[in-house]
Amino acid sequence: MFFRKGIAFFLLSLFFLPILPISAIQANTSALRGLIITDEGLHTAALDLGSFKNSTGMSTFTTTAQEIAKSYQGRDLAEKIRNFIIYAYRSWNIKWVILAGDVEKVPTRLVYNPDIYTEPEDYDHRFTATDYYYAGLEGDWDADGDNNFGENRTMCANGVDETDFTPEVYVGRLPASSSTELQIIVDKIKGYRTSEKLRRTLFIGGNSPAHYEGQEYCALVYNVSGMLEISQPKVMLTTSSRNLTYYSAKQYFNDGFGAVVSISHGDISTLASEDSQGNFLKIFDERAARDATNAPNYSFWFIVACESGRFDASDKDCLAEHIILSKNGGCIGVIAHSRISWGRWLPKEHYTSGGGAFELNWRFWQKIFKEHIAGSGEALYKAKADYVSIYGKMMQQEDQRRDILGMNLLGDPSIDLVMYIIIIELASPSASMLCSCVALSVLTLLLKIGKKRGFHSSSISSWLAHSSNSLRKRRMNAR
């Protein structure tokens, strides 16, 4: 009887890890892979997400900002949360963090990143909202102690770059202001399944005659990201081809695409293209996002446009928030800019090496389609790290910094885009777990048999790796 109760308790613990006081965390944390940090008012939906993560084998610890504030030091709540993440990374080796709440629930960090070209009236142009603060865990992002975080070498009184661009963990935000909103996002995550529709990419290419040509850029992303190599089906709506309108973008988006790539002008609630006379033509907005009907074929959208991800606005939700909070469709995740975004730094014929948000966009999709990095958060932050490594000294320029710091992920950073928008054999997380368990059992059996017959384990592993690669190539060719 005691044995059966013990087994039952163990199985239940895999499916449910409650919110606990930080002081009550037990030593049994070696298997933890992620954190969910939420607000007390959102804890029911956050617990539902944590339970789901644990049920799919992603061991997750859930806690609240209020509980962290009681247990960790810091000059404000954001620093206390970051200090807890540092502890969790160093002690438990966590890989990703979900900030389950909008900024009034779980704060972001405003870094000192002045915009010398524009002075918007509705927010302080000197600061950029970024969750990168929770990903780069070295230092405190304020080396000179002046409370202006993330300054470059020139602005910092100590002459050092205060920003840690090397991510230790991968961060995504679920921008919910209520438990109802958070439950909408959680239900999308729980119901996310692969389908033939999700194996398609929708390109939306607006124009800015003086700066970029949307059709050229979208074609480049398709060619260099790895989509071309696997013949990823695509639909391309562009101003140049005259098939891009507000209604066509809305219609195709509602049909359900796994990946959406867009380039255009934008503000907090609208995407727009520009014609040769300088007129701006709306191609998507918050209404189209709210009215989306593509469920259950939720998209993952990388938006290259100004302010479409300004999630820290106090008076309204940004376009990216509307897309992810849409009740009957929308997105499973959105990458968008919280401030003014400069698409590229060289003439348009240099799209691949011109820097700016254009380059970060195709580097992100390359991580997914060519390097097969599964997690959306890992793909984004590794693309950012590559960008910083390549451009080096140019990262002291405020506009370059803004393109990297201001591009945030709204969504679950652990979502496996490789499985959902490329690989279609596994229909659900539970199927993935079953296949993994079977594979592990077979591997264990093979190792035992091999050792009895005198084979070295490394030889067996090499053979298995070769077989796996061969099978993967056959699957790719079959597509």
The percentage of residues in β strands lies in 15-25%
Largest sheet: 6 strands, mixed
Q: Number of helical runs? A: 15
The backbone outline, from C-alpha atoms, is globular
Order of helices and strands, N to C? Answer: HEHEHHEEEEHEHEHEEEEHEHEHHHEHHH
Provide the CATH architecture of the domain at 192-393 and 406-421.
3-Layer(aba) Sandwich
User: What integer is the average pLDDT?
Assistant: 84
What does this structure look like?
It is a single chain. 39% of the residues lie in helices and 15% in strands. The protein is α/β, with parallel strands linked by helices. Among the domains are: 192-393 and 406-421, 3-Layer(aba) Sandwich (Rossmann fold); 429-478, no CATH class. It has a 6-stranded mixed beta sheet, sandwiched between helices. A 4-stranded parallel beta sheet has the order 2-1-3-6, sandwiched between helices. It has a 3-stranded antiparallel beta sheet with strand order 10-11-12. Helix 2 (43-55) links the parallel strand 1 (34-38) and strand 2 (60-64). Helix 10 packs across helix 11 (376-391). It is globular, with a radius of gyration of 23 Å. Residues 1-20 and 424-479 have low confidence and may be disordered.
